[in-house]
TrEMBL record:
The keyword Membrane applies. Keywords: Membrane, Transmembrane, Transmembrane helix. This is Rod shape-determining protein MreD. The chain crosses the membrane at residues 12-32, 52-68, 75-93, 113-133, 145-163. It comes from the Bacteria. The lineage of its organism: Bacteria, Pseudomonadati, Bacteroidota, Flavobacteriia, Flavobacteriales. It comes from Gelatiniphilus marinus.
Length: 168
């Protein structure tokens, strides 16, 4: 239990640092940024306390907002996907999630990709809707959501492949 807490604490801190120091300064083509801090929310264990998880998601988004001076939009998007996570898990993994015995490294790659995509796209839609906050600029919201989601999903998949633990 103690090692599990330390692993998640280290993941929390490292993802915040990478997001704030590297990813937020990419601005590819002027509007494409990866938001890899959502990987903490995606990879958080299923069986842990849900209230603590939603609080940690809020704290994660709030810390990113503090460093990026973004006024709470990352916190709102993080809390939304943390709250909606059981729906994405049930849709992506089905009965494996129903029995709460799921190990993220042991499931099919297609299901993992579907789950990551749902979570990232939901996060980005909320994030960019709150950032732009104009119905007349819906095309810009969709454009930023699409391209930033693709970039974020690719990076998240690469990170999970590189740092996955193979149990043989």
């Amino acid at each position: 239990m103690n090692s599990l807490v330390s692993i998640h604490s280290i993941r929390f801190i490292i993802l915040i640092l990478i997001q704030v120091l590297i990813c937020s300064h990419i601005n590819f083509l002027g509007y494409i940024n990866p938001y890899i801090y959502v990987l903490f929310i995606i990879l958080y264990p299923v069986k842990n306390n849900r209230s603590l998880f939603i609080f940690l998601s809020f704290l994660l988004g709030l810390i990113v907002d503090f460093f990026l001076d973004s006024g709470g939009i990352n916190a709102a998007a993080s809390v939304f996907i943390a709250y909606a996570r059981p729906i994405a898990l049930k849709f992506s993994f089905g009965m494996v999630y129903e029995h709460q015995n799921m190990k993220f490294d042991a499931v099919d790659f297609g299901a993992k990709l579907t789950y990551m995509s749902i979570m990232v796209v939901a996060h980005h839609i909320i994030l960019f809707c709150l950032e732009i906050f104009s119905f007349s600029k819906i095309i810009l919201v969709l454009q930023k959501t699409l391209f930033s989601s693709i970039f974020t999903i690719i990076l998240c998949v690469l990170i999970t492949i590189i740092f996955s633990r193979k149990s043989k």
